[in-house]
Amino acid sequence: MKLTDPDRLFPVESATRKLARDLYESVADLPIISPHGHCDPSWFAKNERFPDPAQLFVVPDHYVFRMLVSQGVSMADLGVPSADGRAVEDDPRKIWRRFAENYHLLRGTPSSMWLDHSFEHVFDLGERLSADTADAHYDHIDAKLAEDAFRPRALFDRFGIELLATTESALDDLKWHKMINDSDWNGRVVTTYRPDNVVDPEFEGFAENVAQFGALTGEDTSTWEGYLQAHRVRRAFFKTFGATASDHGHPTARTEDMPQADAAALFAKALAGTCTPGEADAFRGQMLTEMARMSLDDGLVLQIHPGSFRNHSASVFAGFGRDKGFDIPSQTDYVHALKPLLDAVGMEPSLTVIVFTLDETSYSRELAPLAGAYPALRLGPPWWFFDSNEGIKRFREATTETCGFYNTVGFNDDTRAFCSIPARHDVARRSDCAYLANLVATGRLGLADAHEVAHDLTYRLAKQAYRL
Amino acid sequence: MKLTDPDRLFPVESATRKLARDLYESVADLPIISPHGHCDPSWFAKNERFPDPAQLFVVPDHYVFRMLVSQGVSMADLGVPSADGRAVEDDPRKIWRRFAENYHLLRGTPSSMWLDHSFEHVFDLGERLSADTADAHYDHIDAKLAEDAFRPRALFDRFGIELLATTESALDDLKWHKMINDSDWNGRVVTTYRPDNVVDPEFEGFAENVAQFGALTGEDTSTWEGYLQAHRVRRAFFKTFGATASDHGHPTARTEDMPQADAAALFAKALAGTCTPGEADAFRGQMLTEMARMSLDDGLVLQIHPGSFRNHSASVFAGFGRDKGFDIPSQTDYVHALKPLLDAVGMEPSLTVIVFTLDETSYSRELAPLAGAYPALRLGPPWWFFDSNEGIKRFREATTETCGFYNTVGFNDDTRAFCSIPARHDVARRSDCAYLANLVATGRLGLADAHEVAHDLTYRLAKQAYRL
Amino acid sequence: MKLTDPDRLFPVESATRKLARDLYESVADLPIISPHGHCDPSWFAKNERFPDPAQLFVVPDHYVFRMLVSQGVSMADLGVPSADGRAVEDDPRKIWRRFAENYHLLRGTPSSMWLDHSFEHVFDLGERLSADTADAHYDHIDAKLAEDAFRPRALFDRFGIELLATTESALDDLKWHKMINDSDWNGRVVTTYRPDNVVDPEFEGFAENVAQFGALTGEDTSTWEGYLQAHRVRRAFFKTFGATASDHGHPTARTEDMPQADAAALFAKALAGTCTPGEADAFRGQMLTEMARMSLDDGLVLQIHPGSFRNHSASVFAGFGRDKGFDIPSQTDYVHALKPLLDAVGMEPSLTVIVFTLDETSYSRELAPLAGAYPALRLGPPWWFFDSNEGIKRFREATTETCGFYNTVGFNDDTRAFCSIPARHDVARRSDCAYLANLVATGRLGLADAHEVAHDLTYRLAKQAYRL
Questions:
Q1: Cβ C74 vs Cβ C102: under 8 Å
Q2: CA-to-CA distance for C395 and C377, rounded, in angstroms?
Q3: Residues A52-98: pLDDT tens digits?
Q4: Shortest Cα distance, chain A CAs vs residue C8, angstroms
Q5: Domain architecture of chain B: domains with CATH
Q6: Number of inter-chain CB pairs under 8 A, A vs C
Q7: Rounded to a whole number, what is the distance in Å from the CA of A17 to chain C's nearest CA?
Q8: Looking at residue C152, what DSSP letter applies?
């Protein structure tokens, strides 16, 4: 028995399936470009073995444990580290068993596809995970993890990753990236400039962060001009570790382009901790436009990830902290929100701004029309809950007719689950090829063109958009 | 000629169709669980014959008559009872003929599927309804209705209904349920606690209703504490008639969890009739959280049905009253609205809150992410305008990848059209099996798993979620 | 090699494809009814040759040039006339080459389908446009344009257009329509009453426009009563040139039904230029209801086209003016916005109000429920970015189950790209037949009914809704 179907995600009608399979086979073995994600660079710096199956697949993956929590399994029983000192399960085998006996909860989800793909293609397992197979799977995976071939660098090479971008705070010293660069390993791991903690007045410790930012850069970050200069300096530092992009996770897509004097005054309020919520939002919005202007100078690609209501459950946040599966999308406006930035820099062909969304209603109504007009704007791939077969299908169906393929930027896996990287790229390649096959079968795209587009979506557009 | 295709709603590709048919055949004959609906309990209490075809299929069914009204047929000509004393058609055959000659207006709608299913499978008719067949159909159905086999209890049994929940106001004396319980009939008809008229300060006669509520329960409903206690008493009374759930139809999904003193003050304003619209909305929102807390004690499942702009046409409301097909969905927020309730009780695995929507944009953006995280939250099936083949398809496609199958609760028919119950459950079973077959055919779900899920969606999840 | 697939847009499964093909063949050759669009009536009045391929296909078509602009080609290089005096490319062959070498950007878009259809079926070209074929295509098309058979009237006849409606401002003298009427040509080209420039207080030169409106009609448009009377007079004038409809492009769908004295006071403020933005919106909303009341008297169909954020890019608007591909849809409410108008006149079966949307979320949530209830309301076909195969599919899937087919009004091409008219109607006919074939194949519609509906959607409903 196999866990994965060789024709998975292809159209069901046989001729169209054949088209999809042919398209897929032409791109299946292309290298993986992973220009946006959250892998831990220390994995590749230290190249230590992954501790155990539970730590590899369950404990850090909020896609997985949230589903068990939603059905009444406690986070503590799944070993999720607590923020309030409460005891949590520390026996990885017990965590694994709880995961295994609830594996049916993931039926029909992308997580189950990614996990089955990893089990079969990374660990060579052929039986479905369940209460019955839990221990055998655990032992098998644990034994594999002890092998050199399953250390991070070996897996990176085996996965065919040509480039992997991680994401680091503006205050990060990038020591792991330095260690990778200094090593004899040739894997290409680059960083991404993520300044939320020095850009968002509502971030914990904002003023202290900005002071530290000044110390790191040698700029006087108590002034608006010095603060902007510190960003320029830090962006240059990140570029020396391969960064080609910045990334911004904001509650909304709001941008501003206020006079510099007003921005300076708002920055002073932010440092003083006296911003209203509206002013904090305006400051974040102003900083997106400032970052875009810096990008015109230094060439970094600007990524905007808006629209997540973070830490929705007060008790989960108090007990377990951030990134625990309780970030909920909310309605997101782009047409009004992006106008200040677009009026400032949107017509610049040398700038690339990549916008993501968690609000699918914006694809056809706002994002595709905007990306199909402004030279600076590109659409990021389906994000988070929409990084899935249906999510990708809806994205292509809702955007292609209005902004084509060439205002999109290939795939991002956006993951901290390392073993899922080949699985996620595989789902994206299959889903895109299924979409293209359907266009060919219905006379909307020529076959040769479809092959070229498949290659573009898999490989070329990501390299081009992220300037890799 | 047959009115219904044996393979209706199955995928068109032959292998996938075969999969769907196999799945469907394994659940087609399972008993019907109808845990939420609006059948009249007096039908089963009195077990009188249904009066005539027009009264059975046209006059009370706003799904049907609204479509004719939308094309210029007057409500009065369709025999819809007036609220302002105007004369309406009282000849059922004339009503039926008007219905029949406009039957083509329902092409492509779920109503036409349900009606054709009823005509063929309940009444054994084989010709499409039209002006030409109107009289023959009328005579045939009318003759059947005179038979004992077509009385409410006999149809209930014939339809294979294991349980049917009706919905009664908190002020209802449940006499029909008592009569059913006291009868020698074994059909299981239970009530549901629907307290809108004593919870919504904007309901006609709110203060009088609350006073009557006090009289019924022996509690002093002029105080906040007494009012809450009256709910506890009345919920217990409803439980003695089989209630396992409460139901709440609010304009928005707003919840509140204000300090009890503030809630008491707001209740006083509500009784005094001095609430602003915003305060009335806040009071309704507070009551959802209060009901959830009572559910923790008494085990009733909490159902929230928000987002309908009721009685949109002022003239229709003045002329014909409520529930006349002029209730229009409106945009509904859940991510902010439900947070107070979820912060209060959302992490309680012993609580079940079932949320419905008329705003499909919330499926993937808000509802599935929330239900895929909070243990207390479940998604109700597609509601009202979305209780349809395409509605169910979009629901599964938009929610499954994020919250799986097990945060959904099976099917609700939600109907007052008794003969449509088997038809609606059949559409749901076929639509779910079509979805599952497609997952199997595209390698997203194993066949054995699909069979288990089909059974769960048809039968087990409804019983489990509603604690039946 | 052919540019278009004879089975394009049909379902891929062979039996369903056969059904779709049969349905399509029964309507493929029906005359084109084009009841809403933006062709230039002077084409048909003067019947001069189209100047060159670039002026025919690129320069005036913002669907096309926006996509090239979005990828960094400048508008000036595409010959788009400037509003600020800057020089723009004036060599049509250079414009055409730029278009040709970027033709791949349109892959997967409706524009590429329409263009390929025009190239093959109007100009008898068989090779895909590209840098390699640019000059040959240019020469070929240019030579054809010199032939009498490619003059506007000849193409109109060849396209099988039974009726074409253009759209003129309330201040237009309709001289081209007069010239057409006075000619010996029998083509039926009618006008549409579009009063935005005398209805929108925020339109450039509103007060002067209203004064001119008074001069044209002989009414005293400085008073509210005279202003309304001027509309009545002008509508009657437009009717003498075949108008059966008015059209209104507003930022929102807001309607109002204020007391006449309030409306008069607001009109005075509008003339004085002292309206706030909210008051201007209210005035526009009031005028929709006034227009609807006039329609009750004179029978003109009322079309509402709301929800476009016009001229989103300040710099493009400054440099190139209106209608340059930078109009972006925004979220649009209908359920609250239309209530004043619907309360005033929505139950009138003799009135037809056709509502369009650029916000697809409103189809199932608001528009189909409203159109499935109010006798005066009909849904316009998918508009602008949604006039496409996927757009039509989503429209039918989202609306049919709730408002059926008969609350929709057939197809509008809404175009100023003359050669795209047969292509657009062909896409609509194929897409509708594909939808109907799928209903038949899944047992949701009888085959004979499907044939009748196909004819209705292609021909009868447009004539009926627009009273042609």
A1: no
A2: 16
A3: 999 999 999 999 999 999 999 999 999 999 999 999 999 999 999 99
A4: 4
A5: 14-49+152-465 (3.20.20.140), 50-150 (1.10.2020.10)
A6: 127
A7: 10
A8: H
